[in-house]
Amino acid sequence: MSPVPATITGSAAPVTDARGRALPGLNPFSLGLPARPGAGPLARRPVRIALGLLVPAALLVAWHVVTTSGVVAPYQLPSPASVWTAAVDLAERGLLGQYVAISTQRVVLGFLVGAALGLAVGSVVGLSRLAGALLEPVLGAIRAVPSLAWVPLLILWMGIGEDSKLTLIAIGAFFPVYTTVVAALRHVDAHLVEAGRAYGLRGARLLGAVQLPAAVPSVVAGLRLALAQSWLFLVAAELIASSMGLGFLLMDSGQNGRVDRAILAIVLLALLGKLTDALIGLAEKSLLRRWA
């Protein structure tokens, strides 16, 4: 039996044979369509993880070579082995775990408070023109204030306890969430909102059932930025007469000339930041599967 000739009815129409049947492999949504160019091995998680570890491994090797060859003096850049020894020393004295735990606790609490406030205020400003006219100029000005500028004021208002540190981290987490929520809510498809209203949804029910789910990708992106910002503000927060935490370790090491401990603090901040970002990434996949 001779093959039935294919018919192309237009650039956006499916490719069919003479009987009107879509031909596998020749249509955009056909299961027989070849893989997207460039996806290939990069679509596999183990490959992406291996590639992600490639650059850190190369940097570690370069660091080791530079320090052991004498190109840089040890008091300026200790070797990776010296940094590891410093970590073991702090761990044996029971300090490293405490520093990591207290810094993580401060970041998590400050992030949760700041993100919740950013979500609430961003929703109000994003949905209300009056609230936007009243609050946007003030919040835009406060957003431009550097983190260290808040330190003396928070000490005067709240003292040197945990409240001032958590407040500073919350300020850092607030603005990325606030900014992305405002922008995302203002760009939700108007037809989607109208459909929600047609089903009788109003106010908070419309926000929770239609508008926020439609803005989930942008909101999650804001949360990831806020979490990264929280780690940045942690160091500034632990400048406030702190005696524990990775920020304290960083500052104390700098004052005492312990470059190995300072590098250790930076490496731990980077690892913890990446770990918490990965957790947000897992939550993002779950949220996108449910709402996006």
Distance from N terminus to C terminus (CA atoms, Å) equals 47 Å
Number of strands: 2
Average pLDDT metric: 83
Mind summarizing the main beta sheet? 2 strands, antiparallel
Order of neighbouring strands in the sheet with most strands: 1-2
What structural class do helix, strand and pairing data support?
A: mainly alpha
Helix content percent band: over 70%
Radius of gyration: 26 Å
Share in β-strands: under 5%
Q: Which H/E pattern describes the elements? A: EEHHHHHHHHHHH
User: Uncertain runs with pLDDT below 50, 5 residues or more?
Assistant: 1-13, 27-33
Number of helices: 11
Shape designation: globular
What does this structure look like?
With 292 residues, the chain is mostly helical. Helices cover 70% and strands 2% of the residues. The chain is built from 11 helices and 2 strands, in the order ββααααααααααα. Strands 1-2 form a two-stranded antiparallel ribbon. It is globular and about 70 Å long. The two termini are 47 Å apart.
